[in-house]
Amino acid sequence: LKTGRPELTPTAIMAGRLLVQRLFGGSSDLMDYDNVPTTVFTPLEYGCVGLSEEEAVARHGQEHVEVYHAHYKPLEFTVAGRDASQCYVKMVCLREPPQLVLGLHFLGPNAGEVTQGFALGIKCGASYAQVMRTVGIHPTCSEEVVKLRISKRSGLDPTVTGC
To answer: What stretch or stretches form a coiled coil here (predicted)?
Structure first.
């Protein structure tokens, strides 16, 4: 049975805890299935939270969506001389200020850690401007998120060339 809800162990655990609290603890809290982060733990990890670019466009219209993206080279790939051509980060936002962040997609090392870190901000309604005012920890993969300045709409090359 397809429910449209993420079929993930941590999601089921939280839903179960909330159910127990409603049944036996007097709570009325329901499971919120929006913006549940997840990661695919393959040799090159992929993590996401929120809407995909396609979902955002379907929900809000192409003219109301701005996508910031970058191809980047993680420090651990530079030191080891590994190919970083597949490392990519994308932030999907509403176009109108304050540009609410609708989704984050991260392909590269430590994607689970990066995605988990930004999931709270997205769940709390972070804007693109707030993310851009966040100081990145250097040199980390998650720093690439707070450096996203190139939008797909601009047509500029999204390849990061240095610090």
So the answer is: none
